[in-house]
Amino acid sequence: MWPGSEVDLGQGLNPSAVDKFNQTEVLSKKMHRVLDWLDQPLDSRPELILSYVPNIDSVGHQYGIGSSELVTQLKYVDSFLEDLYLGLHERNLTELVNVVVVSDHGMSVTSNNRLIYLDDLIDVKMIEHFDGSPLFGLRPYSQHKVKDVWKKLKKSYKKHAMKDKFGIYLKEDILKSQFGGSDGPYNSRVAPIWIIPKIGYTVTTVDATDKQQQEGKIAFSPLGLHGYDNQEVLMRSLFLATGPYFEKQLGDKYKLKPFENTEVYNIICDSMGVTPVSTNATSLPSYIKQENLLPGDWKDEFSYPNVDFYVDILNETATVDTLWGEVDDDEDDDSDSDEEATPTTLSTVVTGLRTQTSSAPTSTSDSDSDDESDSDDDKDDFHKSDDDDDDDDDDNEDDDDDDEGAHKFSWSSFNDKIKGKVDEYANELEDLYDDVAEEIGDAYDGAKESFKDATGISC
C-alpha cells in the first residue's frame, strides 16, 4: 500500500498479501481492504496489517503546512480512521486488535526569501548530479577532484550573505551523524559533498527556479519540505495507539515521553509477541512501559515552531487535548483571534479513545494580528536578494498549555463531553430556526403590503 511495497524480497521475506501502491486510491478502498483481511478465517487472517495514507504528505508538499487544502485532507483522513475504528467495533475487535497511527516525519515551509543558490558558491557546470533536497548532495564530474570542489565551495561560503543558514561538508565528516552509517557496501549511495541548510532554507539553482517561473509558479515549489535535522520541532512525527497491548502496559495512563521513531519496530514486535532482530532502538523489549510515562511536570525544552521565520500554524484543537487535556481559561481570554475554535467532530472522539501518544502535549501559538508573514514577500522574484530575510517575522508567541500529565479515562466524563456538544449544536440550530422564521415573517409582511399597494386588496 506504499511505494515499493510490491518489491519481491525473496527468501521467504515477502508478505502474505500486497496491495500495489496507488497514489490516487480513495481511502475508503484502503479501509475496506483492511477490514476484508480481518474478515478472513483465523487460519489465514493476517496478524500484522500495514497501510499507508499519502494524503497529508502530498498536500503538505504541494500547498504548505498552513493551507486550507491541508485542513480538508486532515478531516478526510480523520474520517478514514473513524470508519476503520467503527469497522473494528462492528466486528467486536476493539478489545483484540491494536491500532497504531504513526508518521515518519514532520514538515516545514519554504520561501523565496530563504533560497540558497548553488550558483553563488560554485560553477554548477562542474557538478554532474545533485542528490536530494533539502540536504543537497553534490557529485562532481570525474575531471574535478572532490577536495578541489570542496575547497572552492568553502572559499565562496566564507563570503556568502547567508553563511549562518547552511554548512558545507565532506561525506566522511558527517556519514555517521547525518546518514547513520559508516563505510559499507552502500557507501557509494552517499554523495561526496553535502550542503546542509537550516530548517526552512532550501538549496537550489538559478536554472531550477527559472524553470519553475516558466511553469507559472510564483512561489518556490514545493511549498512544504521535510528532510531537515530530525531534532527540529517542525520535523517531529506522530505516534498514536490504542488496543489491549497498550492498556496492559500502561493501564489507564495515555501519555508517554517523546521517543525516536527507531523505537516503533520494537513496539510492534512486542505487541505481537515477536522477538525483534538487533536494531539501533534503545528500549527493550519495548518503549511502551510505565517508566516512560510523561511526568505531570514535564516541559518541552523548545517552543513551537522554534524557527526564526513566520509559520502559519493550524490552530486546531487536538483530539487528545479535547478529551483529556486541560485548557487555561486565562489563555482563552487573552487570545487576539476572532475565529471560533473548530468544534470536535464525532470522528475525532471515536478515534481518540484510549489513545497513547509520544508527542509533546499540544500547544497552540497565536501570532499578533498585525504580524506580517512571508506570503507577500514570496510573490517577489525568485532571485530577490536573501539579505532581506532578516525581516522575517520571529515574534510568534508560543502559548504552552500546562499539561497535568497522565489522565484517567472516564466514560461519564466522555458522555458529558458528547452531551455538551449535542446540547451546543441543538442550541445553535434553535437560534438558526428562530432567525430564519423571523426573516420569513418579515418577507411575508412585506409581500402583503406590496400586494395591497398594487391592488388595494388587503390579505
Describe the structure.
- The chain is of the alpha+beta class and 459 residues long.
- Helices cover 33% and strands 10% of the residues.
- The chain has helices spanning 27-38, 55-63, 68-90, 146-159, 171-179, 206-214, 244-250, 264-272, 319-323, 329-333, 346-350, 411-455, and strands at residues 99-102, 108-109, 115-117, 127-131, 136-140, 166-170, 193-197, 202-204, 224-225, 239-242, 356-357, 364-366, 397-399.
- The chain has a four-stranded antiparallel sheet with strand order 4-5-7-6. It has a three-stranded antiparallel sheet with strand order 1-10-11, with helices on one face.
- Helix 1 (27-38) packs parallel to helix 3 and helix 2 (55-63) packs antiparallel against helix 3.
- It is extended, with a radius of gyration of 27 Å.
- It starts with 26 loop residues before the first helix and ends with a helix.
